[in-house]
Amino acid sequence: MVRSHFWCGRGGYSDVAFFWCPGLRLSIHMCGRFNITNMPGLQNLLDDLDIHVQLPEPRYNVAPTEDILLLRHGTADLARWWLVPSWAKEISTRYSMFNARAESLTKSPAFRGPFRRQRGVVPMSSFIEWRNEDGQKQPWLITNEDHTLTVAALWDIWEGGNDPLLSCTLVTTEAADAFKPWHNRMPVMLNREECRRWLDNDQAIDPDDCMLAPVLKYNLLLNPVKRAVGTPSNKDPELFDAAGPQVVLKSDH
After folding, report:
1. Are 153 and 169 spatial neighbours (Cβ–Cβ below 8 Å)?
2. Where along the chain do its domains lie?
3. Given 88, 132, 187, 198, which is the most exposed site by the fewest CB atoms within 10 A?
4. Dihedral sign, CA of 74, 76, 55, 172?
5. Is 109 exposed, middle or buried (0-12, 13-18, 19+ CB in 10 A)?
6. At the topology level of CATH, where does 18-249 sit?
7. How far apart are alpha carbons 153 and 189 in whole angstroms?
8. What pLDDT, in 10s, does the model give residues 146-202?
9. C-alpha to C-alpha distances, 7 to 4, 52, 69, nearest whole angstrom
10. Cα–Cα distance between 16 and 52 in angstroms, integer?
11. How far apart, in whole angstroms, are the C-alpha atoms of residue 20 and residue 125?
12. Residue 156: beta bridge partners?
């Protein structure tokens, strides 16, 4: 049995800020932190994808190596957010495997197989990105008007331990022009029809498919939040209250 559960509660490098995970220090990539709440569109998404699962309890400041909700064709499971390839000798954080560059999906040995036949979707209500402001890293909360984002993911199963381990990585692409003041990359955010296509592992996805393109498919709402979110053990939802004026990035469509 794969070490995953229905939710009942609970590569490439970039030069960005640093944060702490237990026993781990690494640079925050895009996407490196997110929230999942009972956002209005989540139940509609699950219904559309014919996935029957209890809505998750709200979780804030979710960081790499934590278990996250992974949607696969007809199922919803918990998966470790840091891909462990099936052929890996051991579970390791030596290489950053929580993001997969769209440009590398057919080139990287870790991503090539999952891109062909092990694609999934990670729902989130918002993600966090940092940018330099007045010499400091300022975190920004990023969401859409429905507070429901669906991010392309890849998954694999590692069977080198006592129990099989289900793990995943989030796919990123080059940033859309409007997003570049915040980061040079962004998660691949799928619309509803793209979710269905991405989850259909019987059908190949071209690496140049437009769903992986650096465009904004809907408006994004950005709010500065408290800098304390830089510590992933800080899970207080009040940290994500707006700490300044909202910025709206208009869709490219």
Report:
1. yes
2. 18-249
3. 132
4. negative
5. exposed
6. hypothetical protein yedk fold (3.90.1680)
7. 10
8. 999 999 999 999 998 889 999 999 999 999 999 999 999 999 999 999 999 999 999
9. 9, 11, 7
10. 38
11. 23
12. 167
